[in-house]
Amino acid sequence: MEANGAALEPQSDVWAIELKNVSKSFGAHRVLVDLDLKVRPGEKVTLIGPSGSGKTTVLAMTLEKPSGGDIRFFGESILFDAAGQPLSSSQEARIRRRCGMVFQQFNLFPHLTVLQNLILAPMTVLKQSREQAEKSAFEYLQIVGLRSKAHSYPAQLSGGQQQRIAIARALILKPEILLLDEITSALDPELAGEVLDVVRGVAHESNVSLLIVTHEMRFAREVSDRIAVFDAGRIIEQGPPDQIFTNPVSERTR
To answer: Which of the chain's termini has less CB crowding within 10 Å, N or C?
Structure first.
């Protein structure tokens, strides 16, 4: 992959995320076109561009199958084994488990308390005891500033609080990659600010690789190591935030 003509080189032997020649079509409509995208371990990369340009589909490709190409997490394909054969569901689940995602909608279980929402995955996926899971849940509730809401139900929380719980639920599984898909699009500006503050903390204080889709340009500039500009299913330009925002090369970016 190239950034304004300069090839990106990994700082280690393996990329955290590597999309190789990935395409995605829905019927005759091509959403992604032979896309190459790489994210270094610990790197924070934001995808920006007009609605319908393919940004969210990139994140979705880490959860479903593309029409063509390959996707790798830390050097392992999430689609094929070393012999090029499709992975079994258990093999695929093991690799995909290294990645967590926070969606536009909060997707909390309404009949469960905040604490119950958080401990469900550690107990079922990581096979933790309830005591272990609850201890971890309170730690992540502290990180997102909502420890006092452990026994509340989602309907008793604001949208911003629910999204912060969704972030805690993703982080509790200790993903090495975290995908954030327009996580403030359903929130008013004040509540959005609360959520973005949490993500800033994650970006600045952890080694997790972040792949972010957002229309919040100031936020993108603050948290990103690199910004990729999308248009019509392709990356038309990428580079450090200051370059993209102050001296873009592409006329479309300008």
So the answer is: C
- Tell me the per-residue pLDDT of 25-64, one tens digit each, with 9 for 90 and over: 999 899 999 999 999 999 999 999 998 899 999 999 888 8
Beta bridge partner(s), residue 19: 37, 71
Asked whether residue 7 carries a pLDDT value surpassing 50, the answer given is: no
Q: How far is CA 68 from the centre of its chain?
A: 21
Q: For the purposes of burial, counting CB atoms within 10 Å of the CB of 238, is it exposed (0-12), middle (13-18) or buried (19 or more)?
A: buried
What residues does 223 pair with on adjacent strands? none
* Eight-class DSSP state of 87: P
For residue 166 the two structure tokens come to 């969704």
DSSP state of 80: B
Q: Is residue 166 scored above 80 in pLDDT?
A: yes
pLDDT band with cut points at 50, 70 and 90 for residue 234: very high
List C-alpha distances in Å: 76 to 15, 69, 95: 10, 14, 7
pLDDT of residue 139: 96
What six digits make up the tokens of 193? 């600010």
CB-CB contact of 103 with 178 (8 Å): no
Query: SS3 for 44?
Result: strand
Residue-range definition of the domain harbouring residue 141: 110-168
Q: Is residue 125 part of a domain?
A: yes
First to last CA, the chain: 22
Euclidean distance between CA atoms 168 and 183, whole angstroms? 13
Domain count across the chain: 1
Spatial separation of the C-alpha atoms in residues 141 and 8, rounded to whole Å: 37
